Backbone:
């Protein structure tokens, strides 16, 4: 089992300093959680208008690929952690060699950076994964499809997010064209069997350097156009046995891979009630945003607790049902300002909790999320979807008149 370094102690009388590489909305919400712990999250941000740079007073401007910028943000930090997984491995190993507590460690993070490494290691550990193969030429995919069935799924080994870097290949002709194009562009590839799943689940857990683990209830994620639209907590009609299996799988992988911090294990549930691992993320994750209001300890606070080796907090839900809906940029931004949309949302649904990320609206871009808590899944989901659609399109899909006419 990989051993994670303990975070360096803070100077006497000082609060610990956690540095997060990346200035997106995950860092922004982590910064908000840090305030309650008496801390300031230091952020490495690409620019001053990034979501986290807008709210943190301790910002280093620079690129995550620049070793000098990484050294600067790590200077004096108790621990360095991540808003995304794109930092070059060689830079992370340099920081570790210089005494920086990088959490999760580079050896663990690699499994979230490289899908082939992840698939290979999970298979070695006996975790349930779909059949897969590395791709060097179009014939590799054609042979795989002929063996495991068409269609099959082509994936970029590195990068890819919200549906990007994934291609559904229906037959050999399509495979030959897409694979040749991507290999010519220098994209490393793997191919996987297309899983006939009934829904997607996510098991989100946290682990400390001490080895303590904590798991939130397993959730169902609803994808639309390759982007997460909804998260339902807990996953409806999920048997206790399958929920326990998913939680133990995620906790086991966190320990076996040496993860410190939050680990999200994205899963397929098949028609015969089996689970297969789809993706890993070693950071706060979209499928855990509901926990800000919906759990005793949010994933953002828990991530900070974990990298600082604090005892982990309770993951118990604060309501029987929680639904998080992403606010996605419309094809054309509404004429009504976001502020006015917020006014109308609160007037109609005062119990809805809104989180805006300070990002410009672009088609399909995650600019915020809405969380609704309650007792009845149908009603809570309906309200969350109404609210998210209103915030992105300035329209109530049930025909409600904002002026009461």
Residues:
């Amino acid at each position: 089992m990989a051993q994670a370094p303990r975070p360096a102690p803070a100077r006497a009388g000082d609060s610990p300093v956690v540095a997060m590489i990346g200035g997106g909305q995950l860092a922004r919400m982590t910064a908000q959680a840090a305030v309650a712990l008496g801390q300031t999250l230091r952020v490495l941000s690409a620019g001053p208008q990034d979501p986290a740079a807008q709210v943190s007073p301790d910002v280093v401007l620079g690129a995550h690929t620049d070793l000098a910028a990484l050294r600067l943000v790590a200077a004096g930090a108790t621990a360095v952690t991540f808003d995304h997984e794109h930092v070059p491995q060689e830079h992370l190993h340099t920081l570790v060699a210089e005494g920086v507590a990088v959490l999760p460690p580079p050896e663990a993070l690699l499994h979230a950076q490289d899908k082939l490494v992840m698939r290979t290691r999970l298979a070695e550990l006996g975790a349930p994964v779909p059949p897969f193969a590395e791709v060097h030429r179009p014939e590799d995919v054609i042979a795989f499809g002929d063996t495991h069935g068409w269609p099959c799924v082509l994936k970029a080994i590195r990068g890819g997010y919200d549906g990007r870097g994934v291609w559904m290949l229906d037959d050999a002709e399509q495979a030959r064209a897409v694979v040749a194009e991507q290999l010519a562009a220098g994209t490393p590839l793997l191919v996987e069997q297309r899983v006939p799943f009934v829904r997607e689940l996510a098991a989100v857990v946290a682990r400390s350097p001490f080895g303590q683990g904590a798991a939130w209830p397993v959730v169902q994620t609803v994808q639309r156009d390759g982007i997460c639209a909804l998260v339902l907590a807990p996953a409806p009609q999920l048997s206790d046995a399958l929920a326990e299996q998913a939680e133990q799988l995620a906790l086991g992988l966190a320990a076996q891979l040496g993860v410190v911090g939050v680990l999200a294990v994205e899963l397929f549930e098949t028609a015969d009630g089996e689970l297969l691992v789809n993706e890993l993320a070693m950071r706060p994750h979209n499928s855990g945003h509901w926990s800000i209001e919906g759990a005793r300890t949010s994933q953002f606070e828990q991530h900070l607790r974990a990298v600082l080796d604090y005892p982990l907090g309770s993951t118990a839900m604060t309501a029987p049902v929680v639904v998080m809906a992403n606010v996605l940029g419309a094809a054309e931004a509404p004429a009504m300002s976001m502020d006015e949309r917020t006014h109308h949302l609160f007037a109609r649904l005062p119990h809805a909790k809104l989180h805006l990320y300070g990002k410009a609206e672009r088609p399909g871009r995650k600019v915020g999320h809405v969380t609704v808590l309650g007792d009845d899944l149908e009603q809570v989901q309906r309200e969350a979807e109404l609210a998210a659609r209103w915030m992105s399109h300035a329209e109530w899909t049930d025909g409600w008149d904002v002026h009461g006419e």
